[in-house]
Design brief:
There is one protein chain. By secondary structure, the chain is an alpha+beta fold. Strand 4 and strand 5 form a beta hairpin. Helix 1 packs antiparallel against helix 6, helix 6 runs antiparallel to helix 7 and helix 9 crosses helix 10. It is 54% helix and 7% strand. It has 2 domains: 360 residues, no CATH class; 147 residues, no CATH class. It has 23 helices and 12 strands. It has a 4-stranded mixed beta sheet with strand order 7-10-12-11. It starts with 10 loop residues before the first helix and ends with a strand. InterPro entries: DUF6311 (IPR046278). Keywords: Membrane, Transmembrane, Transmembrane helix. Pfam families: DUF6311.
Length: 601
């Protein structure tokens, strides 16, 4: 059997054909995963995470509005009046909002959200394929296998449940490329400027992901550089590398000076996060389990070991773990000393991040032990305490993808001597990867935005820039207010402000963050009515305090649509209407909503 190219199929032609096949596969898988939304982007929502979808739609609309109206894209008083929200400590996706602003104005925030989500998945596959095929392996098959696994691994499919930040995995190979490019002599300025811009873009889209990527690259480089086979190379490249890092820090520092100041010293900042690291840590057993949105999950083998369906950050399954170990062993046996340094660095990085993902205390099949783990020691450090430990497992998937790519290339270059061994490898790859093939995200119809908003009727009842609130108030589980506001901003209707909102802000225990503002009497009564379907006991005191709350927010109109979208539970509109009537008197029927005018103080 000849190994050289045939005259009818030169290498360039075959390579281009392979590139096209990978591109088509990447786009097809992206469309397949998000297919449930494409039927009607404006009416359908991701079932398990419609709240985050509403948030990102709002961020796209607000970012475009801020860009076209000369407003601050990192701080806003449109939500959480009167205090406002520091978007620099939230996931503001500023670059996406600016780049896609024309599309947002053209087709609306929900459709733009879907376009970005789909492109994120496809672009992640294509950028990893580019890095692998142009810089790491010669085999296009190997590069395609590694890239498609990384882009559609369980963690990425899980975060496709509305996370525009975490699905932007295309940033990672570009950052890796930018860092290693700094080794070139004479490339400090140009390479440093380029990497500095990439860092600024990554910060504005996925700051937590940038932090994890930086930690992973730093750990890899330290282990790689300390290996005896690489020390001479490191000494030769170190001066150029450090100069390039200096330029990178300067460029990124200039571009991010204001967002970083807001993040660490600006108003409405906080430390830590609004999520419990004990809950948002990876179950050790999850590494050998299967995810729900996969072929194995469809067959009933999926588990619920993640804190929620958007955080299945490992879930590789035992066959893939065994395959990864086998690939590592194969590569180690056939590697020279220099490549063993790379393998060692990859292995250490994967193990360290896997252990850190287990969080402060070990957990096995949902049962938590008292065993203190490394993350429990690091959790009090600044910046680290704002990260969710389970997401550190996201670093493991690219390492496995790299091992798969290297192993495929090695097996193609040096096929096993025995046919039975070759068959065993083929079956091993099939058994490990086929169960992880993704299935489409679960979607469902969500309540439409009322005509009161879409027709612009709200402008007759709220002064320009005035405050309107839906019932119940806008929070993560009832995101209607931000959906309404996103529609008004994207359709150039003007501005109305809302109290509360879905955001991270101060007010949590021990000075940590929390989701939304601390509750007040009025929104607590409305939340109770919507959840329990019962009208709370209303007293003269609760009426007086509710009016005080509405005056504190400067609310001019309280609005209840016929159908309220509850992101986690059904909301009882009748109980809300009766409770608001007991507090504010009889409502007016305007278009398709009930409206209460708030009397002046």
């Amino acid at each position: 059997m000849t190994t050289g190219p045939s005259p009818a199929s030169p290498p360039v032609t075959r390579d281009r054909r392979a590139d096209l096949i990978v591109a088509v596969a990447a786009l097809a898988l992206a469309g397949w995963v998000t297919s449930g939304l494409w039927w009607d982007p404006n009416r359908r929502a991701i079932t398990v995470n419609s709240s985050d979808q509403a948030l990102f739609e709002w961020l796209l609309a607000f970012g475009g509005h801020a860009l076209t109206h000369g407003e601050n894209p990192f701080f806003t008083h449109l939500i959480n009046v009167p205090d406002g929200v520091n978007l620099a400590v939230n996931t503001s996706i500023t670059v996406y909002a600016g780049v896609f602003a024309p599309l947002t104005y053209l087709i609306g925030p929900p459709a733009t959200f879907l376009v970005i989500l789909t492109l994120n998945l496809a672009a992640t596959a294509l950028t990893w394929y580019w890095l692998l095929s142009r810089h790491l392996v010669r085999s296009r098959l190997a590069a395609g296998a590694g890239a498609l696994f990384i882009a559609y691994c369980p963690a990425m499919v899980s975060h496709a449940n509305a996370h525009l930040n975490w699905t932007a995995g295309w940033l990672v190979p570009l950052l890796i490329w930018g860092v290693f490019r700094l080794r070139r002599p004479g490339n400090a300025i140009r390479g440093g400027i380029l990497l500095g811009v990439l860092v600024a873009i990554a910060f504005s889209i996925a700051a937590e992901g940038l932090f994890f990527t930086a930690l992973a690259i730093a750990l890899f480089l330290i282990v790689w550089a300390l290996h005896p086979a690489r020390r001479a190379e490191v000494r030769a490249a170190l001066p150029a590398f450090l100069r390039g890092l200096g330029v990178t820090a300067l460029v990124a520092g200039v571009l991010l000076a204001y967002p970083l100041w807001l993040h660490f010293a600006g108003p409405q900042r906080f430390h830590g996060t609004g999520f419990d690291p004990l809950i948002h840590s990876e179950d050790i057993a999850a590494y050998g389990s299967y995810p729900r949105r996969s072929l194995a999950g469809w067959a009933g083998l999926g588990t619920s070991l993640a804190p929620n369906p958007t955080e299945e950050n490992s879930f590789f399954g035992i066959p893939l773990l065994l395959l990864a170990v086998a690939c590592f062993g194969l590569l180690w046996r056939r590697a020279d000393r220099a490549f063993r340094a790379t393998l060692l660095a990859l292995g250490v990085t994967a193990v360290v991040f896997a252990v850190l993902s287990w969080g402060p205390r070990a957990k096995w099949h949902g049962r938590r032990t008292d065993q203190l783990l490394p993350f429990g020691v690091l959790d009090n450090l600044p910046v680290v305490n704002a990260a969710l430990p389970s997401r550190l497992a996201l670093v493991v998937a690219p390492v496995i993808g790299l091992l798969l790519a290297y192993a495929v290339e090695r097996l193609r270059a040096e096929p096993p001597r025995h046919r039975s061994t070759e068959l065993a490898w083929t079956l091993g790859f099939a058994a490990a990867l086929l169960p992880l093939l993704p299935t489409p995200l679960l979607t469902s119809v969500r309540e439409p935005i009322p005509r009161f908003i879409t027709a612009g009727t709200w402008k007759q009842h709220v002064s320009p820039g005035g405050v309107l609130t839906p019932l119940p108030l806008t929070i993560d589980v009832t995101p209607d207010g931000q959906r309404w506001q996103a529609y008004a901003l994207a359709h150039r209707q003007g501005e109305f402000r809302i109290p509360a909102g879905f955001f991270l802000g101060p007010g949590g225990p021990d000075g940590r963050g929390r989701i939304g503002p601390p509750p007040r009497t009025f929104d607590s009564l409305m939340d109770q009515a919507g959840r329990t379907k019962l009208v709370p006991i209303i007293t003269d005191g609760s009426i007086k305090q509710s009016l005080t709350d509405l005056h504190y927010w400067k609310v001019e109109a309280v609005v209840l649509p016929d159908r309220v979208h509850g992101a986690k539970y059904d909301v009882d509109e009748e109980a809300l209407r009766r409770t608001a009537t007991a507090l504010l008197g009889p409502p007016q029927r305007i278009d398709d909503v009930w409206l209460w005018k708030v009397p002046p103080p």
